[in-house]
Amino acid sequence: MQQTGSSHKSHRSRRADWATGGAHTSSTVYGDKRYFDEASTSEPATLDKNDKQVDTLREKLRGLKDITVDIGHEIRDQNSFLSQMNSDFENTGNALAGTMKRFYRMAKTQSGAHMWLLCGFAIAVCIFLYLYLKWSS
């Protein structure tokens, strides 16, 4: 594809040509056909409209970039929070496992019947409180 004339100029330089009374015509060769572009009075308005649309698009892209960056920060914060929560749950699980080991060891060294009676009583109290609160509301 060959280009001749001022068709290779940017839209800003064509606008400057139009404003100063410069070259008003250009031709472009596509294959065997030659097309002539006549500069009209609506070209500057079209170029201004295009510039405004480009600026609007640039603002929207800047907004999308800001949102994307904020999402990235939020994801990092949430990952940090989840890691801390995972660590806390591991520590709690280890503490409960240690407590259960001590409880079983105590149950074996002392009279086992007393410990099972105590556990049964605690479970019965929990069931009673659950049923009482369920029926009272």
Automatic annotation (TrEMBL):
Indicate the segments forming the T-SNARE coiled-coil homology domain, all copies.
44-106
Q: Name a biological process GO annotation.
A: protein transport
> What does UniProt give as GO cellular component?
Golgi membrane
The regions listed as transmembrane in this protein's record are: 115-133
Q: Where in the cell is it found?
A: Endomembrane system; Golgi apparatus membrane
> Which protein are we looking at?
t-SNARE coiled-coil homology domain-containing protein
State the membrane topology: Single-pass type IV membrane protein
Q: Which UniProt keywords apply?
A: Golgi apparatus, Membrane, Protein transport, Transmembrane, Transmembrane helix, Transport
Q: Where is this region: Disordered?
A: 1-28
